[in-house]
Amino acid sequence: MASNRQTGEPSTRQSHFHPPPCESINSMPWFGMDIGGTLSKLVYFEPKDITRDEADAEVEALKNIRRYLTKNSAYGKTGHRDAHLQMDNVFIRGRKGTLHFIRFPTSEMGNFLALAKSKGMANLVTTVCATGGGAYKFENNFKKEVNMSLAKFDELNALIRGMLYIETINPHECYYWSHPTQDDLCRKVPFDFSKPYPFLLVNIGSGVSILAVYGPDNYKRISGTSLGGGTFLGLCCLLTGCNSFEEAIELATEGDNTRVDKLVKDIYGGDYSRFGLPGDLVASSFLHVCSFGQMNSEDRRNAVSREDLARATLVTITNNIGSIARMCAVNENIERVVFVGNFLRVNPISMKLLAYAMDYWSNGTMKALFLEHEGYFGAVGCLLLNGGS
To answer: Average pLDDT of 63-80?
Structure first.
């Protein structure tokens, strides 16, 4: 893992939690959980170097759990394994195996615990390593329903540890978008993140946390906002009647936010050149459904589709996050801004908006970077921290 190459930078060394180990180092199965406000992420390490003696001694319940988790891509109605993110030939705590990435809505925690109980997980695991707010909120539920304890790890420490580990072992993890506003030229380009420090880490989940990272144990939380992925989903459900994040993104993909938002050119008739504001820049979100300077226009509201509303909501939330991130980067004198979190899952619209904003408003000095495993780094960090990695 790369060492801190910066000197003289302001920084805050975070105090680490030291919970008891989740299980003995050799016991299986190995899980890491990140229980967020909207989505729960589960990482499962499947060993591939099992010896004949281990195979003979392995209890049937553990074999059943392994088969169930690795042979399915869906669990019940809402649990999913992101098979495209699977990582093979990974070494953790001296063992070689495969990392599996599973997610489910946090609102379905009751069903998750019932499933864990039905598969006999409680007979094998007494403590689960977890991070995120849900590690506190659901602690009693784990104990009551499946007689499991939660060993809690600091959320931001786990996030950074997991991110740096995955980026180190996956040469294609980090990338940026070239020509993000030109569909015919836009593409993902690998980025060499081997010398990462300093960088700004923008974690977009239900809300947003922004960290300035100067080394693996040298970072500080410098800002955040409550307007994140949860806000986008909540507003979309209210405005369009959609029922899931995936549906909201699908609607936004087909929508046109300029039918909802008022642009600079709607006010100035073109660019506002004095301050470098292009005419197609959003000047006021959701104002176009109103008559300028008059009361709300029912005709304009009726002309707006569900897709347009979803797109405008997505652009509003993304622009706000990008603006805050850019100001933080300027204040910290940092040029690389790394965006992570499940808000970016199946969401190239926001990634391209962020890529364009970082480049345009910094005159090309800032670069927006993205990571393939988006929202799973906290769960991976738990897995590593449990073994002291």
So the answer is: 90
